[in-house]
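Issue: ligand-bound run for succinic acid - logging full I/O for the record.

Environment: standard queue, default settings, no custom constraints.

Inputs:
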Amino acid sequence: MSGLQITPSAQYPFGCRIEGVDIRAGVDDQTAQQISDALNQYLVVCVSGEPYDSEQLVNWAKKIGPLEINISKAFQNAAYPQVMTLSNVLIDGKPQGLADAGQEWHTDMSYNLISGRATILHAHQVPVKDGRPLGDTAFRSMYAAYEALPSTLREKLDSLEAVHDFENLWTHMLARPGSMRKPFTDAQRKEKPPVVHPVVLRHPWTGRKCIYVNRGLTTKILGLPKQESRDLLDFLFTHQEQEQFEYRHQWRVGDTLMWDNCASIHLATGGYRADQPRVMIRTQILGDETRYRKANASLGARIFNAV
Ligand code: SIN
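Outputs:
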């Protein structure tokens, strides 16, 4: 019998903390289902606990859904390439993990043909200053952002579609001072060509409408003149990033944070120095083509295009 306690965030309009499950001991099917249901309800779910390794992460994450192997092909666990280390630690000048993950607003895996389901990020080391953890991850609810728009604009957006491109975020990160990324390769471009999604997605699990564009990965809106597409995207980015749609996660060592990648955007806020180690392991849960198609059936052939 599962003894999960789920406590909704007292501070933010979404997000919850789950206690009463020890992921190190394995997660049974019933518990995985409860966590998955909580994800649909709260968008961001934090399971409290103690640090565990990549094998344990894969073992429970795959009960939520199939896992992505990230095309960056860097800092992946040798035995479990579905797991990537995010870290600012250098040993003899060599990075021990991806140091700049998520440092621009984005939605993980919107660069896939099928919108991604979730990301799981598990904290091994968290920098602290004066007793306050550093390196929060900030989220915005794309349900709330959609619902806050005037109805005439919602109607207009409902019929639009946009291009998402992995290379866009990569290039932005590469351009930052001190970036250790290598230039995006032709092989990566071939593996992840730009894709098209509706600007307003019907969530494949909940059926609710949410804004599905993000600053990191969305490059243009189809069918609009170039400047109009740019202006509309800039408006949507500014709108969706407002604090009124916020959940902000303050990390504890051992936290397992899982977030919904259809109805949220997120940002690694940084704010710690190179000598303040932050070490996380991450895996990403792919979307479900049948659910994606069914929830967005009214869009017909307009979705599922690589461009
Ligand atoms: C991510 O966007 O995957 C990383 C977020 C973080 O490190 O806070």
